[in-house]
Amino acid sequence: MKHNKLIVITGATGTGKTTVSSYLTEQYRIRRVMTHTTRPPRPGEQNGVDYYFETPESFATKHFIEHVTYAGYEYGSSYESLNKAWAKANFCSIVLDTKGAITYAKELGDKISILYLTIKDPSILKARLLNRGDDPEMVEKRLASPEYTRDLTLPAELSDLSTVIVNDDWETAKRHIDAYIKDCALRAVGLRD
Ligand SMILES: Nc1nc2c(ncn2[C@@H]2O[C@H](COP(=O)(O)OP(=O)(O)O)[C@@H](O)[C@H]2O)c(=O)[nH]1
Ligand SMILES: Nc1ncnc2c1ncn2[C@@H]1O[C@H](COP(=O)(O)OP(=O)(O)O)[C@@H](O)[C@H]1O
Q: What SMART domains does the record point to (predicted)?
């Protein structure tokens, strides 16, 4: 268990957290820890693949490491899901808002490494969300939420633990992620401090 590592992917909505998580799975077989939400599924999202989609009642019965309200919906993550992912591989990832990332930094210490995603001009995020197929009303609500504004800045508590990826251009972002994974691998085998 002592070599288990968790890559926490965080950043504002639309900056590419899910895209990065899928890339880590496809390219490096780094699985994502499944989390729970009361948000309704977007077109194409599946229960047990994208999230465990819960009702407010079923959400309340879970035992979470942490849970947050984000733009009016509940999100939570459990040790059960984390241990399930670690049982399959030593390296896994999780997608969290910055509040959740701060809790993980406190709870799991040096077992985590953080990828903070950002883009130079956040005004293009709206187009990315609409292009993703999000409901326009949900997009407005989300972009007006305090959680969205908060997550546009890397919290001071996370700055020492984080690698910042600017995702303006996906090919460039991928190169930085590849370098980050190479660095993680070298640290894991003791070839870098
Ligand atoms: N703290 C915390 N955040 C979560 C959890 N699951 C998802 N999130 C975050 O909740 C926010 C909203 O997620 P989602 O509705 O899928 O929107 P998206 O960020 O636009 O893809 C994102 O910042 C996610 O990273 C969780 O279990 N805990
Ligand atoms: N570098 C990029 N350039 C243009 N579109 C991108 C880029 N990275 C991700 N996207 C697209 O932007 C949308 C939001 O990305 P997503 O990974 O779902 O963000 P998040 O999980 O942070 O909300 C998706 O449709 C995704 O395909």
A: GuKc (SM00072)
- % of the chain beyond a pLDDT of 70: 99
Q: How far apart are CA 67 and CA 179, in angstroms?
A: 31
- Cβ atoms of 112 and 162 within 8 Å: the answer is no
Cβ of 32 below 6 Å from ligand 1:
no
CATH code that applies to domain 5-33+90-188 = 3.40.50.300
Ligand 1 contact via 95 beta carbon (within 6 Å): yes
Is residue 39 pLDDT above 50, yes or no?
A: yes
What is the position in ligand 2's atom list of the atom closest to the CA of 117?
22
DSSP 83-120: HHHHHH-SEEEEE--HHHHHHHHHHHGGGEEEEEEE-S
CA dist., res. 130 & res. 10, Å (int): 20
pLDDT of residue 192: 80
Q: Where are the domains of the chain?
A: 5-33+90-188
Could you tell me if residue 40 is left (phi over 0), alpha (psi between -120 and 50 degrees) or otherwise beta? beta
pLDDT attached to residue 121: 97
Among the listed residues 123, 129, 132, 102, the one whose alpha carbon sits nearest the alpha carbon of residue 10: 102
Q: Examine the pLDDT at 69 and tell me if it is beyond 60.
A: yes
- 52, two tokens: 């465990």
Closest CA to 176 of 39, 20, 13, 4: 20
